[in-house]
Design a protein that fits this description.
Blueprint lengths: L11 E5 L3 H7 L4 H7 L1 H14 L3 E8 L7 H24 L3 E5 L7 H14 L6 E8 L1 H17 L10 H7 L10 E4 L18 E4 L9 H13 L14
Parallel strand pairs: 1-2, 1-5, 2-4, 3-4, 5-6
Helix pairs in contact: 1-2, 2-4, 4-5, 6-7
Bound molecules: 3-methylbut-3-enyl trihydrogen diphosphate (2 copies) and magnesium ion.
The site of one 3-methylbut-3-enyl trihydrogen diphosphate has 11 residues, from strand 2.
Length: 244
Amino acid sequence: MAGAPAKVLPRHVAITMDGNGRWAAARGQTRAAGHKAGLAPVRMCIQECGQRGIEALTLFAFSSENWARPAAEVGSLMGLFFEALETEIAELHERNVRMRFIGARRNLPVRLQARLAAAEERTAGNTGLKLQVAASYGGRWDIVQAATELARACASGAMRPEEITEERFAKALSLGTLPDAELLIRTGGEQRLSNFLLWHCAYAELFFTPRLWPDFGVTDFEEALAFFASRERRFGQVPGQRAP
Ligand code: IPE
Ligand code: IPE
Ligand code: MG
C-alpha cells in the first residue's frame, strides 16, 4: 500500500504445523487425509515468505517423539513426504528456494533419505528463501549432536574447551549459521514448544493460534506477521533502549 509504513519483518519464521488429526476427525476423515490437507498451507507459507523477502522459514513436520505414533500413521507420513518432494521440488527450485532437512535423518526410510539429499543438492545454489524442513527432529537431539561434535573436536585436540562459545556451539547445531528464529507460529491451539528449535527460540516471539494447520490461510499468516511487528523486542534491556 502506497505510503504505508514499512512493517518490521522477522528474518526467520519457524512454524509448528499442528492440528491435522483434529481437522480430519472433524470431517470424519482419516488422520492421513488431514496430513495431506496440510500441504496447501505449506505451499502458501513458502510463497508468502518468498514474496516478502523473508530470509528463512523452518517447518516442523515430524518430531523425534512422533515416531511413537501408530505405525500406520508414521508410514503414511513418510509416504506423504516422499510424494510431496516429488511433486513440489521442481516448483521450489523454480522459485529459487534453497531446501535443507534437519533432524536425525538416518532414522528415516532409506529411499526418503536419498530423495532429501537429492532435493538439497538440486537447490543448493539457490539464493532465495532458505527453507528448512524438520523431520525426525528434536531440539534436545540437536543440542546433543552439537555437543557430541564439539566433544569429539576437543578429544582429538582440534579445539580447546575454552574455545566453546555460544557462536561456536550454534554453528554445530543443525541450522548452522542461520539467524535465530524470530517468530514462532504454532497452529492447533496448544501453547508449548514440543521440543522444536529449543536453542534458536531463546528470544523468538511466540504466536499461538487455535486455527488447525490445514485451515491456516494467508490472513492468518499476515496476522502472525502483524503480531511480530507490534512487539517491542527488548532482549533483556529496558523499554525504548534499543534502536527501532
Ligand atoms: C501435526 O498434526 C502433524 C504432525 C505432528 C506430524 P497432528 O497429527 O499432531 O494433529 P493433531 O494435533 O492430532 O490434531
Ligand atoms: C508437534 O506436534 C510436532 C509437529 C507438528 C511436527 P505434536 O502434535 O506432536 O505435539 P504434542 O504431542 O501436542 O506436544
Ligand atoms: Mg498434534
